[in-house]
Amino acid sequence: MKHSYLIITLLTATICSCTPKERDLHIEAGNIKVTATNKSDGAAEVRAILTREKAYIDSIKSPVLGEAAVPLEKYIPESPLMNFAADALMEMAQQHSNHKIDIAITNKGGLRSNIAAGTITFGDVYNVFTFENRLAFLTLNGEQLVQLCKEIAKVDGEAISGMRLEITKEGELLRATVGGKSIESQATYRIATLDYLSQGNDNLTTLAQGSDLEVTNHLLRDLMVEYIKKETANGKKITAACDGRITIKE
Fold first, then answer.
1. What 3-state DSSP class applies to 200?
2. Which secondary structure element, helix H or strand E, spans residue 76, and what is its range?
3. Across 221-241, average pLDDT
4. Which residues have C-beta within 8 Å of that of residue 216, sequence separation ≥ 6?
């Protein structure tokens, strides 16, 4: 008599604000033989396992980190969620660098959900920052930075901080400033971004030309958690708005 097997593999990661070495990865795998006499029991065992693991994951995602004063949503060419992510990245990156950070850039495609006004839980942050992207630093000269700005214009904007762009609706760059000043071709600019983008991904190919690349062990998600906790400890709610850092000119 042939038997069917139901293969159950459950992968559960303890998702928390901690270093990679501190992460707890829990894996269970096993075979449950399903026959005409026990197939209903097998289904019950599966349900029991899934119920247990769901409760475990829910306990990780439920802790409250802070409160959003306004909805943080994503749209182009800039949005509250994009500006929040870039500004928080800028501030937290500066805390983890010995050098002055001029610009912070993250990709809008990496922001996978909006954050509603009200309580912000760890689960909310995880839903937005689902990827295991790490903080990276690199340096571009002025000419390279202008080229990067053209790439950002071509994809209708990215999440940026420390920089302002004027672009056309056709995706052409009209003007770019850093810290309120025009970009100097021979100057150098230190950029905080993601390891993924530092490889030139998401059409931001110029980032791969950067010098003095430093990839850290700080996950973007953990930096966001750290930022929200810090703001909450200071009695502040999380807020962001469109401020004209990327504008479309006719």
1. coil
2. none
3. 97
4. 96, 134, 135, 136, 137
Parse the chain into domains and list their residue ranges: 4-61, 65-249
CA distance 144 to 167: 18
Domain 65-249, second-level architecture: Alpha-Beta Complex (3.90)
Q: Name the pTM for this structure.
A: 0.79
For tokens 């829910």, the residue is 58
Could you tell me what percent of the chain has a pLDDT over 90?
Answer: 74
Give 233: exposed, middle or buried? Use CB within 10 Å, 0-12, 13-18, 19+.
Answer: exposed
Distance, CA of 150 to CA of 157 (rounded, Å)? 10
Rg, Å, the chain Cα set = 22
How far apart are alpha carbons 14 and 207 in whole angstroms? 32
Cα distance between residue 211 and residue 207, in whole Å: 9
E-assigned strands of the chain? 4-13, 25-34, 64-68, 103-106, 118-121, 134-141, 159-161, 163-168, 173-178, 181-182, 188-194, 211-219, 246-249
Residues 96, 129: Cα–Cα separation, whole Å = 19
Q: Is 174 left (phi over 0), alpha (psi -120 to 50) or beta?
A: alpha
Which one, of 78, 76, 60, 98, lies nearest residue 225 by Cα?
Answer: 60
